[in-house]
Design brief:
- The protein is built from eleven helices and 16 strands.
- The protein has helices spanning 50-60, 75-86, 136-139, 155-164, 192-202, 210-217, 224-230, 270-283, 288-303, 315-322, 326-330, and strands at residues 3-7, 11-14, 19-22, 26-31, 43-48, 65-68, 70-72, 95-97, 104-110, 113-119, 143-147, 176-179, 205-209, 236-241, 245-250, 253-258.
- Strands 6-3-11-12-13-14-15-16 form an eight-stranded mixed β-sheet, with helices on both faces. A four-stranded mixed β-sheet has the order 5-4-9-10. A two-stranded antiparallel ribbon has the order 1-2.
- Strand 11, helix 4 (155-164) and strand 12 form a beta-alpha-beta unit.
- Keywords: Kinase, Transferase.
- It holds the Pfam family PfkB.
Length: 333
């Protein structure tokens, strides 16, 4: 791992510790085959968590990754811990809570998309607080990755994310990456727009979808440049525009890479995969255009499967796609 933007003052410096991804992962019950939940006969068990998705894809790219969270002392928790660890992610910082359950979600596929029912109130991860900052799994991080899901889970979780995004950049133990990852169903208090804007502005690297920026902060944000005007603070800002393109603002430089054509099986998890690919590229010392390409290619792995985590192309194929000419790239490599 080589270089990545770490502060508004110092630009780039080496990142030496693992990427530490902090947030909740749940057991996911999914009708198999895909069908509306009220008529389903069988439910398959998967795992679902934005931050553990990022950690697993980072591990796929050969980037040392750690996932930090809390799980219940129950079969779902045991399964999640084992599955994330099996992907090559360090789970030594995952706490076991004997008094609270592992979170759960149930997918309900329909003709107009998939609805998700959450059963995570009072979960083990929702009880996380800023005391996590004293854990060696956090203090030894080279880069911390967070999402806007965590501050929606509880007051303690919101305090944790706020503390990790210490306003004084010089006081942070390492740079922080933040994916806005707006989940409207989790923000019953109506605070999403204000809270997520403040957090997005304080991160060293911020990811946001154009559609979620519009939902949160207004339809007037018609393109990536309007989002940059709203979020001028992060040294690196990545604005994802669905199947069209992704734009990276790297200081005063702007880089736009169209999304290659991909046969989409299910879009869930693609944003997490994109973030992991982009971060992996930066950590390798790649220029932002190649990091954006790696983000798109990693997102494609998620788009092609029904779960959140799909297989990457082999290393030789990845290298070939990263070097593809623009016209070959636009056709999907």
């Amino acid at each position: 791992m080589t270089k990545i933007h770490t502060s508004r003052e110092t630009g780039r410096r080496p990142v030496t510790g693992p990427v530490t991804c902090i947030g909740e992962t749940m057991a996911a019950l999914i009708p198999e085959p895909a069908a509306p939940l009220d008529g389903a006969g069988l439910l398959g068990i998967r795992i679902a968590g934005a931050e553990s998705n990022v950690a697993m894809y980072l591990a796929d790219h050969g980037v040392p990754a750690r996932w930090v969270s809390a799980l219940g002392d129950d079969p779902f928790g045991h399964r999640i811990r084992a599955e994330v660890a099996a992907s090559g992610v360090d789970v030594s910082g995952v706490r076991t809570d004997p008094h609270r359950p592992t979170g759960l979600l149930v997918k309900d596929p329909g003709t107009e998309g998939t609805r998700v029912h959450y059963y995570r109130r009072g979960s083990a991860a929702s009880a996380l607080t800023p005391d996590l900052l004293d854990d060696d799994a956090v203090r030894s991080a080279g880069l911390i990755h967070l999402s806007g899901i965590t501050p929606a889970l509880s007051a303690g979780c919101r305090d944790l994310v706020t503390a990790l995004l210490e306003p004084d950049v010089a006081e942070r133990p390492c740079p922080v990456s933040f994916d806005v990852n707006h989940r409207a169903a989790l923000w019953a208090d109506g605070a999403a727009a204000t809270v997520l804007l403040g957090l997005a502005r304080r991160a060293d690297i911020t990811f946001v979808g154009l559609d979620e920026a519009q939902a949160l902060w207004g339809d007037g944000l018609t393109d990536a440049f309007a989002v940059r005007d709203l979020l001028p603070q992060p040294p690196v800002l990545v604005v994802k525009d669905g199947a069209r393109a992704a734009t990276a603002f790297d200081g005063s430089r702007v880089h736009i890479v169209p999304a290659p054509k991909v046969e989409v099986i299910e879009p869930v998890g693609a944003g997490d995969a994109f973030a992991a690919g982009f971060l992996a590229g930066l950590l390798r010392g790649e220029e932002p255009v190649r990091a954006l390409r790696l983000g798109h290619l990693t997102a494609g792995a998620a788009l092609r499967v029904t779960g959140d985590h799909g297989p990457l192309p082999d290393r030789a194929r990845l290298a070939e796609l990263l070097d593809a000419a623009p016209e070959e790239w636009a056709e999907g490599g």
